[in-house]
């Protein structure tokens, strides 16, 4: 309006002015025109600026308002213990937008009274990858124990389903993790323990006391005299002390009442702190996982384990490319998952496939039993693993594998459950983990048979795959199972056995007890492998008759090359004649004793012949 009035006034002035000379009038008109145009441009610019700012303000979104709208879909659950939430309906009055209905419907479905509906809800959640972060948080906050564990055992689950573990309590003043571990161990019952548990406990407590004395400048008492502590004399590294304590706790966690004590004394939080502190130490993490896996065998502790944040850690670990880490996490999660699992996996029994929930029907079991100085994973790695870098493993798992049963066999026969067993052995009593441990083949076979039966072995057709002394354990287990009515299913469902260089008639190993570093004072396991061992001969004769009667299918492999034991001994551990069971094919292979069960590549004869035997022996069972 002001701009228009100004223009009218200017025009009137131009008309009312008296005539002037032509030149004067010309320049005056130009000046008036410039004033008019400038005013018009300035006013228009101000008007446009005002309109733009007004428009921008009207289009700006209040992000706080948006977040508040999103938060309408959150559920704020009262403090209720996880085991009481199973029948707790928290969804009857939730205010949700239309686009959020799918999330809440899945949550409600996951608490259905029908097991099939619950499983379907977990599967649909795990297969959903288009949600926003806050939608995953809704599930993480509102889901119950069964759903959370189910998501952790689902291969495609997004890790955003899992809330970070709750903050850990602070360490006591003037204390350390090492001292907290020692106190936890000292709080456990010390009576009615077997000799090995007593040994590991006393070792851990004594070593941690030495380390504590070193840290606090204490005195050693020797012969009644005070002797200043000499640091170079007996200082124990902190990580070593922690390993001693963890090994003792592993043994204690095999006793259910001791698991209750570990939980009550804050063991779950302390172990979690130690796990996060030693992410670069697989041995420490392995023992921690063993303890948590043993505690998970006790169903009344499941809610406490979940509430402490361990499921979030396990969900990440089970996806690890490191087979040991993934397998320990898979064992613990399987023990927590009572929705789909009836089996329980005790310490030393690891499922290599399937490690997640699967819709693939499992029709048979294949069990892998290692031999002397072996392990559940490293025994079954591909040959020449020490020359292959981790980066290459990650680049092409098909060209190299750290465990061929988990990768090659699982891919070729997905309908199999593949289990690997681990137990402690030693060549010499000097190198044994527990000096009081004198476990014969008979003792170990009963121990392993009990663990395998708890894992459901015998409920399906079974093939046993063994290396070295592991084959003797398999023979003894089957003979023991034949004497126990409750183990009859193990015998009835055994279809075949693969022996990799098993010394059915003994080995020369015990005779070479001259290398002071390795074989001085040979262990009981080595002594039982002697060619003149009466127990070995009885085992062979009894099993041969038994296997013929049951018509077991048998495949024998044997090495033809000598094996280096240390730097001084070159030994043909299992001669061809000793590997001959008397039934089944006997196939010599140009490798040494350590590599007889480690194929060079997937298309190597050693693996392909093994695969052929498994497929042919289980042909009828896999077709059904």
Automatic annotation (TrEMBL):
UniProt keyword list: Endoplasmic reticulum, Lipid biosynthesis, Lipid metabolism, Membrane, Mitochondrion, Phospholipid biosynthesis, Phospholipid metabolism, Transmembrane, Transmembrane helix
Membrane topology reported for the UniProt record: Single-pass membrane protein
Cellular component aspect of the GO annotation: endoplasmic reticulum; mitochondrial membrane
Record-linked InterPro entries: AB_hydrolase_fold, ARM-like, ARM-type_fold, SERAC1
Top-level taxon in the UniProt lineage: Eukaryota
GO BP annotations listed: phospholipid biosynthetic process
Cell compartments where the protein resides: Endoplasmic reticulum; Mitochondrion membrane
Similarity field: Belongs to the SERAC1 family.
Function: Facilitates the transport of serine from the cytosol to the mitochondria by interacting with and stabilizing Sideroflexin-1 (SFXN1), a mitochondrial serine transporter, playing a fundamental role in the one-carbon cycle responsible for the synthesis of nucleotides needed for mitochondrial DNA replication. Plays an important role in the phosphatidylglycerol (PG) remodeling that is essential for both mitochondrial function and intracellular cholesterol trafficking.
This protein's name: Protein SERAC1
């Amino acid at each position: 309006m002001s701009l228009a009035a100004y223009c009218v006034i200017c025009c009137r002035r131009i008309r009312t002015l008296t005539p002037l000379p032509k030149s004067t009038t010309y320049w005056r008109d130009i000046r008036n025109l410039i004033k008019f145009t400038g005013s018009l441009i300035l006013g228009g610019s101000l008007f446009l600026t005002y309109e733009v700012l007004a428009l921008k303000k009207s289009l700006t979104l209040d992000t706080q308002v948006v977040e508040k709208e999103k938060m309408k879909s959150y559920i704020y659950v009262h403090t209720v213990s996880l085991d009481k939430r199973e029948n707790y309906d928290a969804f009857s009055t939730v205010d949700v937008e239309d686009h959020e209905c799918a999330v809440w419907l899945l949550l409600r479905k996951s608490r259905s009274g029908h097991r099939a509906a619950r499983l379907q809800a977990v599967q649909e959640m795990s297969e959903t990858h288009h949600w926003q972060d806050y939608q995953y948080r809704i599930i993480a906050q509102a889901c119950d124990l069964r759903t959370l564990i189910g998501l952790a055992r689902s291969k495609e689950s997004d890790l955003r389903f899992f809330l970070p573990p709750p903050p850990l309590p602070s360490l006591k003043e003037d204390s350390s993790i090492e001292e907290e571990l020692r106190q936890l161990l000292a709080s456990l019952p010390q009576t009615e323990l077997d000799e090995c548990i007593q040994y590991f406990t006393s070792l851990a407590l004594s070593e941690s006391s030495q380390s504590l004395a070193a840290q606090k400048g204490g005195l050693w008492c020797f012969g009644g005299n005070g002797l200043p502590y000499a640091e170079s004399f007996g200082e124990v590294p902190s990580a070593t002390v922690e390993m001693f304590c963890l090994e003792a706790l592993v043994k204690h966690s095999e006793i259910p009442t001791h698991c209750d004590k570990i939980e009550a004394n804050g063991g779950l939080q302390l172990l979690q702190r130690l796990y996060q502190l030693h992410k670069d130490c697989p041995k420490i993490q392995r023992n921690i996982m063993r303890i948590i896996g043993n505690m998970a065998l006790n169903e009344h502790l499941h809610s406490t384990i979940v509430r402490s944040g361990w499921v979030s850690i396990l969900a990440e670990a089970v996806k690890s490319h490191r087979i040991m880490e993934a397998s320990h996490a898979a064992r613990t999660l399987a023990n927590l998952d009572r929705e789909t699992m009836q089996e329980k996996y005790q310490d030393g029994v690891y499922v290599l496939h399937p490690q997640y929930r699967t819709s693939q029907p499992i029709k048979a079991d294949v069990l892998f039993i290692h031999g002397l100085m072996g392990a559940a994973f490293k025994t079954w790695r591909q040959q020449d693993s020490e020359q292959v870098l981790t980066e290459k493993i990650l680049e092409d798992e098909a060209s190299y594998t750290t465990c061929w049963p988990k990768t090659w066999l699982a891919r070729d026969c997905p309908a199999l459950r593949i289990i690997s067993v681990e137990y402690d052995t030693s060549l010499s009593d000097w190198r044994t983990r527990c000096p009081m441990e004198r476990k014969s083949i008979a003792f170990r076979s009963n121990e392993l048979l009990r663990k395998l039966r708890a894992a459901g072995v015998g409920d399906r057709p079974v093939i046993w795959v063994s290396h070295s002394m592991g084959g003797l354990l398999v023979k003894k287990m089957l003979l023991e199972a034949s004497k126990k009515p409750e183990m009859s299913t193990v015998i009835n469902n055994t279809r075949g056995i693969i022996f990799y260089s098993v010394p059915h008639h003994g080995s020369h190993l015990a005779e070479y007890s001259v290398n002071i570093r390795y074989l001085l004072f040979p262990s009981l396991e080595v002594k039982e492998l002697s060619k003149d061992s009466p127990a070995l001969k009885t085992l062979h004769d009894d099993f041969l008759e038994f296997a013929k009667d049951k018509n077991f299918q048998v495949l024998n492999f044997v090495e033809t090359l000598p094996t280096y034991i240390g730097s001084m001994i070159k030994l043909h551990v299992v001669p061809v004649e000793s590997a001959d069971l008397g039934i089944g094919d006997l196939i010599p292979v140009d490798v040494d004793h350590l590599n007889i069960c480690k194929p060079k590549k997937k298309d190597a004869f050693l693996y392909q012949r093994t695969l052929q035997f498994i497929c042919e022996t289980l042909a009828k069972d896999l077709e059904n």
